[in-house]
TrEMBL record:
<dbReference type="InterPro" id="IPR050962">
    <property type="entry name" value="Phosphate-bind_PstS"/>
</dbReference>
<dbReference type="Pfam" id="PF12849">
    <property type="entry name" value="PBP_like_2"/>
</dbReference>
<dbReference type="InterPro" id="IPR005673">
    <property type="entry name" value="ABC_phos-bd_PstS"/>
</dbReference>
<feature type="domain" description="PBP">
    <location>
        <begin position="57"/>
        <end position="348"/>
    </location>
</feature>
<feature type="signal peptide">
    <location>
        <begin position="1"/>
        <end position="24"/>
    </location>
</feature>
<keyword id="KW-0732">Signal</keyword>
<keyword id="KW-0813">Transport</keyword>
<comment type="similarity">
    <text>Belongs to the PstS family.</text>
</comment>
<feature type="region of interest" description="Disordered">
    <location>
        <begin position="30"/>
        <end position="49"/>
    </location>
</feature>
<keyword id="KW-0592">Phosphate transport</keyword>
<dbReference type="InterPro" id="IPR024370">
    <property type="entry name" value="PBP_domain"/>
</dbReference>
<protein>
    <recommendedName>
        <fullName>Phosphate-binding protein</fullName>
    </recommendedName>
</protein>
């Protein structure tokens, strides 16, 4: 009897300790299990752990589009939801084309796109942006489009624009081709077939690759810069993550995707011979040098950028993209406007932009970003 009584007392004591520990952990909270424990959403208060303002934010915000910015968006959403209690940002990573369609069908509060809206897409947006509003381009994420490859025994690879064009349109079929060997003196290139992977659905990343090749290798890339893959041959995969996965697992493969995907999966990337003093590596810093020369070509509140793909500046990586968030300049839905403004204020702010470099992206140049913040603040 005495032994049973001691066991009961011991069990009770352990239970108290366990409950106390659970309460302590709950009080501390975590980003994964207690989103928003450090702030009260929709009250205008600022998170104790950050400068994220939750002014007017409430409920659920649906968004979709570019998979190029997925890794940045994942970080932003996690941080924002940790700060703004009761607010849910649901970003579906698909493609730029699908995101714009969803936006123009009034299915999402904003869309992500790797290319600015076309005139016909702007015209369609006027049907969903009330009061004479229209969709505008807000540059939010910059970064290099990496040419990733998997070639056993080859740890460093240099290509130029004409060679990249010939690889992706099937004119160069083998890794020991003379054009590749000439750019990689001393490298032991295997007699192995090239397996080139491209995006299967409409993609802004594809369009930006097309713009680069059209500007720098027109004779070898005679295709219009569209979101749909234009060249014959090759193998298709759904999103940037799928293209990267195929390259990762296939010896002899090459593909294109944002640097963050190469970094996450330890995929080797091509250095590009631009005609500068030395081939340029795909890094956030080098992409920033190229994006810094961009000019705003949009009018009014639209901030679409013009990029110089032909730069030969030392250390400037020319194959870059800028991802835009697409929103109505006015006529946004009343129930999501506060959340859209709050979230995009964070992503375009110092805190949101600062995390981009660590994730393999490049922040938007300060002068342009200042206009983005001003425009976001004025969304109606």
């Amino acid at each position: 009897m005495k032994l049973q009584r001691k066991n009961r007392l011991r069990a009770t004591a352990l239970g108290v300790i366990a409950v106390s520990s659970a309460l302590a952990l709950t009080a501390c909270g975590s980003d994964d299990n207690d989103k928003g424990s450090s702030s009260t959403g929709g009250t205008g208060k600022t998170s104790a752990a950050s400068n994220i303002k939750c002014d007017g934010a409430k409920g659920q915000l649906l968004a979709s589009g570019s998979s190029a910015q997925k890794n940045a968006m994942d970080l932003w959403v996690k941080n924002y939801m940790a700060a703004c209690k009761g607010v849910e940002i649901n970003y579906k990573s698909s493609s730029s084309g699908e995101g714009i369609i969803a936006f123009n069908q009034s299915q999402v509060g904003f869309a992500g796109s790797d290319s600015p809206l076309k005139p016909e897409e702007v015209a369609n947006s006027k049907k969903v942006c009330a009061g004479g509003g229209q969709g505008i381009n807000l540059p939010m994420v910059g970064g290099p489009i990496a040419i990733g490859y998997h070639l056993e025994g080859v740890d460093s690879l240099v290509l130029d624009a004409p060679t990249i064009a010939k690889i992706f349109n099937g004119k160069i079929k083998n890794w020991n081709d003379e054009a590749i060997a000439k750019l990689n003196s001393g490298a032991k290139l295997p007699d192995k077939a090239i397996q080139a992977f491209h995006r299967s659905q409409d993609s802004g990343t594809t369009q930006n690759l097309g713009k680069y090749l059209g500007a720098t290798a027109k004779a070898d890339w005679p295709y219009p810069a569209e979101k749909k893959w234009p060249a014959p041959g090759g193998q298709a995969a759904a999103g940037s993550s799928d293209v990267a996965a195929q390259v990762k697992q296939t010896d002899g493969a090459i593909g294109y995707f944002e640097l963050s995907y190469a970094t996450a999966q330890s995929i080797k990337t091509v250095d590009i011979n631009t005609g500068a003093a030395a081939p340029v590596k795909a890094t956030s810093e080098n992409a920033s040098k190229a994006i810094a020369a961009a000019k705003i070509k949009g009018t009014g509140k639209d901030l679409a950028l013009g990029l110089d793909y032909t730069t030969k500046a030392d250390g400037a990586y020319p194959l870059v993209l800028v991802t835009y968030e697409i929103a109505c300049d006015k006529g946004n839905k009343a129930d999501t406007l506060g959340t859209v403004k709050s979230f995009l204020t964070y992503t375009s702010g110092d805190e949101g932009q600062k995390i981009l470099s660590d994730a393999g992206y490049a922040p938007i140049p300060a002068e342009i970003n200042a206009k983005v913040r001003e425009t976001v603040a004025g969304l109606q």
